[in-house]
């Protein structure tokens, strides 16, 4: 009798443990998609495209630090500033662009070269450089939009996407632009006077170009 009671107790405990284990595994599996769902720009293809396009474009064109500082001006402590006249806070296209500018601005010299070198190209053309130095913020934003559009278009060309892939990334860019423009409209940038975003317009515009 004692053996039967012990056996029944063991069986009951085993079933309870198995049920708990199954519940834990089920909860973990159910939570897995949520953990993989991107909640910030590094998890989206469109944002990554903007990041790599801008960083690559900066190196390819050989943009000088003085020109970069006109887009992400240094703050009082010397760190690059997320300028609300050029970027939109909470925009999934502006943040990767800013991060690429910031990363490039802190670049080191290329290792192993006799001559000091930290970039590749000859620098921006005089027209763009002049626009970036304009006291008119609209002119500065137009110059930034031109750069972003060219760099994203160059990156897309290198990616050799299929028509279906191009359509998918264009839709993602459009969604990112809508989110950024929504933040701009709601005044999250602190500047409600402007109605355009050079990063959003340049990125989405490049995707539509064929």
Count of separate DSSP helical elements: 8
The chain-level structural class is mainly alpha
Mean pLDDT figure: 82
Outline the biggest β-sheet: none
Domains (count): 2
Low-confidence stretches are 1-38
Report on the structure:
- By secondary structure, the chain is mainly α.
- It has two domains: 1-37; 41-208, no CATH class.
- The chain is 64% helix and 0% strand.
- It is built from eight helices and no strands.
- It has helices spanning 2-36, 45-61, 65-71, 94-105, 126-132, 137-159, 163-185, 198-208.
- Helix 2 (45-61) runs parallel beside helix 4 (94-105), helix 6 (137-159) packs parallel to helix 8 (198-208) and helix 7 packs antiparallel against helix 8.
- The relative contact order is 0.15.
Topology:
Blueprint: H1 2-36, H2 45-61, H3 65-71, H4 94-105, H5 126-132, H6 137-159, H7 163-185, H8 198-208
Helix pairs in contact: 2-4, 2-6, 5-6, 6-8, 7-8
Describe the structure concisely.
The chain contains eight helices and no strands.
What brief labels describe this structure?
single chain; 210 residues; mainly alpha; 8 helices; 64% helix; globular; disordered N terminus
